[in-house]
Amino acid sequence: MSILRQRRRQAGIDYWPGFVDALSTLVLAIVFLLSVFMVAQFFLSRQVTDKDAALSRLNRQIADLTDLLALERSGRRQVEDNLSALSATLQAVEQERDRLKAGAGVSIPPINPKDPLRNLPSEAQAQIDILNQQIAALRRQLAALEAALDASEARDRESQARISDLGQRLNVALAQKVQELARYRSDFFGRLRQILGARQDIRVVGDRFVFQSEVLFDSGQSAIAPAGRGELDQLAAAIVVLEKEIPADIAWVLRVDGHTDRRPVSSQGQFKSNWDLSSARAIAVVQYLIEKGVSPTRLVAAGFGEFQPIDLGNSDEALRRNRRIELKLTER
Predict the structure, then answer these.
(1) What pLDDT, on a 0 to 100 scale, did the predictor assign at position 41?
(2) Would you say the C-alpha torsion 238, 239, 244, 246 has a positive or negative sign?
(3) Residue 297 to residues 119, 124, 146, 212: CA-CA distances in angstroms?
(4) How do residues 92-139 score in pLDDT, each as one tens digit?
(5) What share of residues in the chain are helix, strand, coil (percent, to 5)?
(6) Does 190 map to a domain?
(7) Are residues 164 and 25 in the same domain?
(8) Contact 131/93 with Cβ under 8 angstroms?
(9) For residue 316, what are the domain limits?
(10) Are 236 and 310 in contact (CB under 8 A)?
(11) What is the pLDDT of residue 136?
(12) Looking at the structure, do residues 11 and 159 belong to the same domain, yes or no?
Protein backbone atom coordinates (compact mmCIF):
# COMPACT_ATOMS: atom_id res chain seq x y z
CA MET A 1 0.00 0.00 0.00
CA SER A 2 2.74 2.39 0.88
CA ILE A 3 4.60 1.55 -2.35
CA LEU A 4 1.49 2.41 -4.44
CA ARG A 5 1.02 5.71 -2.61
CA GLN A 6 4.66 6.48 -3.11
CA ARG A 7 4.34 5.83 -6.87
CA ARG A 8 1.29 8.08 -7.09
CA ARG A 9 3.09 10.82 -5.23
CA GLN A 10 6.02 10.37 -7.53
CA ALA A 11 3.72 10.65 -10.59
CA GLY A 12 2.24 13.89 -9.22
CA ILE A 13 5.69 15.26 -8.74
CA ASP A 14 6.62 14.33 -12.30
CA TYR A 15 3.51 15.61 -14.19
CA TRP A 16 1.65 18.23 -12.14
CA PRO A 17 4.25 21.04 -12.39
CA GLY A 18 4.32 20.73 -16.18
CA PHE A 19 0.54 20.96 -16.35
CA VAL A 20 0.55 24.05 -14.12
CA ASP A 21 3.21 25.71 -16.30
CA ALA A 22 1.21 25.07 -19.46
CA LEU A 23 -1.97 26.39 -17.89
CA SER A 24 -0.18 29.52 -16.65
CA THR A 25 1.23 30.16 -20.12
CA LEU A 26 -2.22 29.80 -21.66
CA VAL A 27 -3.74 32.22 -19.14
CA LEU A 28 -0.98 34.79 -19.76
CA ALA A 29 -1.52 34.51 -23.52
CA ILE A 30 -5.26 35.09 -23.13
CA VAL A 31 -4.65 38.08 -20.85
CA PHE A 32 -2.18 39.51 -23.37
CA LEU A 33 -4.61 39.11 -26.28
CA LEU A 34 -7.40 40.74 -24.30
CA SER A 35 -5.10 43.64 -23.46
CA VAL A 36 -4.17 44.11 -27.12
CA PHE A 37 -7.84 44.02 -28.11
CA MET A 38 -8.80 46.61 -25.47
CA VAL A 39 -5.97 48.94 -26.53
CA ALA A 40 -6.95 48.64 -30.19
CA GLN A 41 -10.59 49.30 -29.35
CA PHE A 42 -9.58 52.36 -27.33
CA PHE A 43 -7.54 53.87 -30.18
CA LEU A 44 -10.30 53.08 -32.69
CA SER A 45 -12.82 54.92 -30.51
CA ARG A 46 -10.44 57.88 -30.24
CA GLN A 47 -10.08 58.00 -34.03
CA VAL A 48 -13.84 57.93 -34.54
CA THR A 49 -14.28 60.70 -31.94
CA ASP A 50 -11.60 62.84 -33.60
CA LYS A 51 -13.23 62.39 -37.02
CA ASP A 52 -16.62 63.38 -35.61
CA ALA A 53 -15.16 66.51 -33.99
CA ALA A 54 -13.44 67.49 -37.24
CA LEU A 55 -16.67 66.95 -39.19
CA SER A 56 -18.64 69.14 -36.77
CA ARG A 57 -15.95 71.83 -36.94
CA LEU A 58 -16.04 71.83 -40.74
CA ASN A 59 -19.83 72.18 -40.73
CA ARG A 60 -19.64 75.14 -38.34
CA GLN A 61 -16.95 76.84 -40.41
CA ILE A 62 -18.95 76.45 -43.61
CA ALA A 63 -22.08 77.83 -41.92
CA ASP A 64 -20.16 80.82 -40.53
CA LEU A 65 -18.53 81.58 -43.87
CA THR A 66 -21.85 81.27 -45.68
CA ASP A 67 -23.44 83.78 -43.29
CA LEU A 68 -20.52 86.18 -43.69
CA LEU A 69 -20.68 85.84 -47.45
CA ALA A 70 -24.40 86.63 -47.42
CA LEU A 71 -23.75 89.76 -45.32
CA GLU A 72 -20.89 90.78 -47.60
CA ARG A 73 -23.05 90.41 -50.70
CA SER A 74 -25.86 92.37 -49.08
CA GLY A 75 -23.43 95.18 -48.27
CA ARG A 76 -22.05 95.07 -51.78
CA ARG A 77 -25.53 95.42 -53.27
CA GLN A 78 -26.07 98.50 -51.10
CA VAL A 79 -22.74 99.95 -52.28
CA GLU A 80 -23.73 99.29 -55.89
CA ASP A 81 -27.07 101.04 -55.36
CA ASN A 82 -25.29 104.02 -53.77
CA LEU A 83 -22.81 104.07 -56.62
CA SER A 84 -25.60 104.12 -59.18
CA ALA A 85 -27.41 106.94 -57.35
CA LEU A 86 -24.23 109.00 -57.07
CA SER A 87 -23.48 108.48 -60.75
CA ALA A 88 -26.94 109.77 -61.65
CA THR A 89 -26.49 112.76 -59.35
CA LEU A 90 -23.07 113.49 -60.82
CA GLN A 91 -24.47 113.37 -64.32
CA ALA A 92 -27.27 115.78 -63.38
CA VAL A 93 -24.85 118.21 -61.71
CA GLU A 94 -22.51 118.14 -64.72
CA GLN A 95 -25.44 118.83 -67.03
CA GLU A 96 -26.48 121.77 -64.85
CA ARG A 97 -22.91 123.12 -64.89
CA ASP A 98 -22.71 122.77 -68.67
CA ARG A 99 -26.02 124.59 -69.02
CA LEU A 100 -24.71 127.47 -66.94
CA LYS A 101 -21.46 127.55 -68.90
CA ALA A 102 -23.43 127.81 -72.11
CA GLY A 103 -25.17 130.84 -70.60
CA ALA A 104 -28.71 129.50 -71.00
CA GLY A 105 -31.06 132.46 -70.52
CA VAL A 106 -28.14 134.85 -69.78
CA SER A 107 -26.44 137.36 -72.07
CA ILE A 108 -22.78 136.43 -71.87
CA PRO A 109 -19.95 138.57 -73.34
CA PRO A 110 -17.31 136.93 -75.53
CA ILE A 111 -15.34 134.28 -73.63
CA ASN A 112 -11.62 134.67 -73.08
CA PRO A 113 -10.12 131.36 -74.31
CA LYS A 114 -7.35 131.61 -71.70
CA ASP A 115 -9.88 131.89 -68.84
CA PRO A 116 -13.36 130.84 -70.05
CA LEU A 117 -14.99 131.57 -66.68
CA ARG A 118 -13.66 135.13 -66.23
CA ASN A 119 -16.15 136.77 -68.58
CA LEU A 120 -19.21 135.00 -67.12
CA PRO A 121 -21.58 137.02 -64.96
CA SER A 122 -20.59 136.79 -61.29
CA GLU A 123 -23.80 135.00 -60.27
CA ALA A 124 -23.36 132.31 -62.92
CA GLN A 125 -19.67 131.96 -62.07
CA ALA A 126 -20.55 131.48 -58.38
CA GLN A 127 -23.06 128.76 -59.26
CA ILE A 128 -20.52 127.03 -61.48
CA ASP A 129 -17.92 127.13 -58.71
CA ILE A 130 -20.40 125.52 -56.31
CA LEU A 131 -21.29 122.91 -58.89
CA ASN A 132 -17.61 122.17 -59.53
CA GLN A 133 -17.11 121.64 -55.81
CA GLN A 134 -20.11 119.32 -55.70
CA ILE A 135 -18.79 117.41 -58.71
CA ALA A 136 -15.38 116.99 -57.07
CA ALA A 137 -17.04 115.75 -53.85
CA LEU A 138 -19.23 113.34 -55.82
CA ARG A 139 -16.23 112.01 -57.71
CA ARG A 140 -14.39 111.40 -54.44
CA GLN A 141 -17.42 109.53 -53.10
CA LEU A 142 -17.61 107.53 -56.32
CA ALA A 143 -13.91 106.62 -56.06
CA ALA A 144 -14.40 105.54 -52.42
CA LEU A 145 -17.44 103.43 -53.34
CA GLU A 146 -15.60 101.81 -56.25
CA ALA A 147 -12.69 100.97 -53.95
CA ALA A 148 -15.13 99.48 -51.39
CA LEU A 149 -16.79 97.50 -54.17
CA ASP A 150 -13.42 96.14 -55.37
CA ALA A 151 -12.54 95.14 -51.78
CA SER A 152 -15.93 93.45 -51.38
CA GLU A 153 -15.45 91.49 -54.59
CA ALA A 154 -11.97 90.41 -53.42
CA ARG A 155 -13.40 89.24 -50.08
CA ASP A 156 -16.17 87.46 -51.96
CA ARG A 157 -13.65 85.55 -54.08
CA GLU A 158 -11.64 84.66 -50.98
CA SER A 159 -14.74 83.46 -49.14
CA GLN A 160 -15.82 81.39 -52.13
CA ALA A 161 -12.39 79.78 -52.28
CA ARG A 162 -12.49 78.97 -48.56
CA ILE A 163 -16.01 77.55 -48.82
CA SER A 164 -14.93 75.43 -51.79
CA ASP A 165 -11.96 74.11 -49.82
CA LEU A 166 -14.10 73.37 -46.77
CA GLY A 167 -16.71 71.74 -48.99
CA GLN A 168 -14.10 69.41 -50.43
CA ARG A 169 -12.90 68.50 -46.95
CA LEU A 170 -16.49 67.95 -45.83
CA ASN A 171 -17.12 65.69 -48.83
CA VAL A 172 -14.08 63.64 -47.85
CA ALA A 173 -15.36 63.36 -44.27
CA LEU A 174 -18.83 62.36 -45.47
CA ALA A 175 -17.31 59.81 -47.83
CA GLN A 176 -15.51 58.31 -44.86
CA LYS A 177 -18.86 58.07 -43.05
CA VAL A 178 -20.35 56.28 -46.05
CA GLN A 179 -17.41 53.89 -46.11
CA GLU A 180 -17.87 53.20 -42.40
CA LEU A 181 -21.56 52.42 -42.95
CA ALA A 182 -20.66 50.17 -45.90
CA ARG A 183 -18.24 48.27 -43.66
CA TYR A 184 -20.90 47.81 -40.99
CA ARG A 185 -23.38 46.67 -43.66
CA SER A 186 -20.92 44.10 -44.94
CA ASP A 187 -20.30 42.82 -41.41
CA PHE A 188 -24.04 42.76 -40.70
CA PHE A 189 -24.90 40.78 -43.82
CA GLY A 190 -22.02 38.40 -43.14
CA ARG A 191 -23.36 37.84 -39.64
CA LEU A 192 -26.86 37.21 -41.00
CA ARG A 193 -25.51 34.65 -43.46
CA GLN A 194 -23.81 32.83 -40.60
CA ILE A 195 -26.93 32.93 -38.42
CA LEU A 196 -29.50 31.98 -41.05
CA GLY A 197 -27.29 29.61 -43.00
CA ALA A 198 -26.93 29.02 -46.75
CA ARG A 199 -30.46 28.87 -48.14
CA GLN A 200 -31.94 29.49 -51.57
CA ASP A 201 -34.86 31.45 -50.12
CA ILE A 202 -32.65 33.83 -48.07
CA ARG A 203 -29.81 35.50 -49.98
CA VAL A 204 -27.82 38.68 -50.60
CA VAL A 205 -28.59 40.61 -53.80
CA GLY A 206 -26.29 43.63 -54.25
CA ASP A 207 -26.57 45.78 -51.15
CA ARG A 208 -29.79 44.07 -49.98
CA PHE A 209 -30.58 41.03 -47.86
CA VAL A 210 -33.54 39.24 -49.40
CA PHE A 211 -36.17 36.96 -47.82
CA GLN A 212 -38.56 35.23 -50.18
CA SER A 213 -42.10 36.03 -49.04
CA GLU A 214 -42.87 32.32 -48.52
CA VAL A 215 -40.34 32.28 -45.68
CA LEU A 216 -42.36 34.80 -43.65
CA PHE A 217 -45.94 34.83 -44.98
CA ASP A 218 -48.66 32.53 -46.17
CA SER A 219 -49.97 33.21 -49.67
CA GLY A 220 -51.88 36.50 -49.90
CA GLN A 221 -51.42 37.24 -46.18
CA SER A 222 -49.55 39.94 -44.26
CA ALA A 223 -49.45 38.29 -40.83
CA ILE A 224 -46.07 36.76 -39.93
CA ALA A 225 -46.37 32.99 -40.26
CA PRO A 226 -45.23 30.86 -37.28
CA ALA A 227 -42.47 29.36 -39.44
CA GLY A 228 -41.10 32.82 -40.21
CA ARG A 229 -40.97 34.09 -36.64
CA GLY A 230 -37.83 32.12 -35.86
CA GLU A 231 -36.02 33.75 -38.79
CA LEU A 232 -37.13 37.22 -37.70
CA ASP A 233 -36.12 36.49 -34.09
CA GLN A 234 -32.56 35.85 -35.25
CA LEU A 235 -32.69 38.92 -37.49
CA ALA A 236 -33.88 41.09 -34.59
CA ALA A 237 -31.09 39.83 -32.33
CA ALA A 238 -28.50 40.70 -35.00
CA ILE A 239 -29.96 44.21 -35.45
CA VAL A 240 -29.90 44.85 -31.68
CA VAL A 241 -26.19 43.99 -31.66
CA LEU A 242 -25.66 46.19 -34.74
CA GLU A 243 -27.28 49.19 -33.00
CA LYS A 244 -24.67 48.95 -30.26
CA GLU A 245 -21.75 48.65 -32.69
CA ILE A 246 -22.47 51.51 -35.12
CA PRO A 247 -21.40 54.91 -33.65
CA ALA A 248 -24.32 57.12 -32.68
CA ASP A 249 -23.25 59.92 -35.03
CA ILE A 250 -23.73 57.76 -38.15
CA ALA A 251 -27.30 58.40 -39.37
CA TRP A 252 -28.55 55.00 -40.57
CA VAL A 253 -31.77 53.04 -40.89
CA LEU A 254 -32.70 49.51 -41.87
CA ARG A 255 -35.23 49.84 -44.66
CA VAL A 256 -37.71 46.97 -45.00
CA ASP A 257 -39.10 46.83 -48.55
CA GLY A 258 -42.10 44.71 -49.53
CA HIS A 259 -42.41 43.38 -53.11
CA THR A 260 -45.00 41.23 -54.90
CA ASP A 261 -45.22 39.51 -58.26
CA ARG A 262 -47.26 40.92 -61.15
CA ARG A 263 -50.36 38.81 -60.59
CA PRO A 264 -53.28 40.87 -59.22
CA VAL A 265 -54.54 40.12 -55.73
CA SER A 266 -57.82 38.31 -55.29
CA SER A 267 -60.88 40.55 -55.28
CA GLN A 268 -62.20 38.51 -52.37
CA GLY A 269 -59.18 39.20 -50.16
CA GLN A 270 -58.52 41.97 -47.66
CA PHE A 271 -56.14 43.86 -49.96
CA LYS A 272 -57.25 46.01 -52.87
CA SER A 273 -53.92 45.91 -54.74
CA ASN A 274 -50.35 44.64 -54.66
CA TRP A 275 -49.40 48.05 -53.26
CA ASP A 276 -51.53 47.35 -50.20
CA LEU A 277 -50.18 43.82 -49.78
CA SER A 278 -46.49 44.77 -50.14
CA SER A 279 -46.85 47.73 -47.75
CA ALA A 280 -48.73 45.67 -45.17
CA ARG A 281 -46.04 42.97 -45.23
CA ALA A 282 -43.21 45.50 -44.80
CA ILE A 283 -45.07 47.11 -41.87
CA ALA A 284 -45.70 43.70 -40.30
CA VAL A 285 -41.97 42.91 -40.36
CA VAL A 286 -41.09 46.30 -38.87
CA GLN A 287 -43.66 45.93 -36.09
CA TYR A 288 -42.38 42.43 -35.27
CA LEU A 289 -38.78 43.65 -35.08
CA ILE A 290 -39.84 46.47 -32.75
CA GLU A 291 -41.56 43.94 -30.49
CA LYS A 292 -38.25 42.06 -30.34
CA GLY A 293 -36.30 45.08 -29.11
CA VAL A 294 -35.19 46.91 -32.26
CA SER A 295 -35.40 50.70 -31.96
CA PRO A 296 -38.24 52.09 -34.13
CA THR A 297 -36.01 55.07 -35.05
CA ARG A 298 -33.78 52.64 -36.97
CA LEU A 299 -36.54 51.08 -39.10
CA VAL A 300 -38.39 52.20 -42.23
CA ALA A 301 -41.18 50.29 -44.03
CA ALA A 302 -41.87 50.71 -47.75
CA GLY A 303 -44.12 48.92 -50.25
CA PHE A 304 -43.26 48.66 -53.95
CA GLY A 305 -46.00 46.36 -55.23
CA GLU A 306 -45.01 44.54 -58.42
CA PHE A 307 -43.11 47.49 -59.90
CA GLN A 308 -39.53 46.61 -58.87
CA PRO A 309 -39.06 43.04 -60.16
CA ILE A 310 -35.68 41.36 -60.05
CA ASP A 311 -36.71 38.72 -62.60
CA LEU A 312 -38.61 39.81 -65.73
CA GLY A 313 -39.63 36.28 -66.67
CA ASN A 314 -43.15 34.81 -66.58
CA SER A 315 -42.34 31.42 -65.11
CA ASP A 316 -43.46 30.34 -61.67
CA GLU A 317 -39.85 30.56 -60.50
CA ALA A 318 -39.52 34.14 -61.78
CA LEU A 319 -42.75 35.16 -60.05
CA ARG A 320 -41.60 33.48 -56.85
CA ARG A 321 -38.30 35.37 -56.89
CA ASN A 322 -40.15 38.68 -57.21
CA ARG A 323 -42.27 37.99 -54.11
CA ARG A 324 -39.83 39.07 -51.45
CA ILE A 325 -38.91 41.20 -48.43
CA GLU A 326 -35.67 43.15 -48.81
CA LEU A 327 -33.55 44.62 -46.02
CA LYS A 328 -31.28 47.54 -46.89
CA LEU A 329 -28.92 49.21 -44.41
CA THR A 330 -28.75 52.77 -45.69
CA GLU A 331 -28.22 56.40 -44.71
CA ARG A 332 -31.09 58.23 -43.10
Answers:
(1) 61
(2) positive
(3) 91, 83, 55, 25
(4) 766 766 766 665 444 444 444 445 445 545 665 676 677 677 777 777
(5) 70, 10, 20
(6) no
(7) yes
(8) yes
(9) 199-331
(10) no
(11) 76
(12) yes
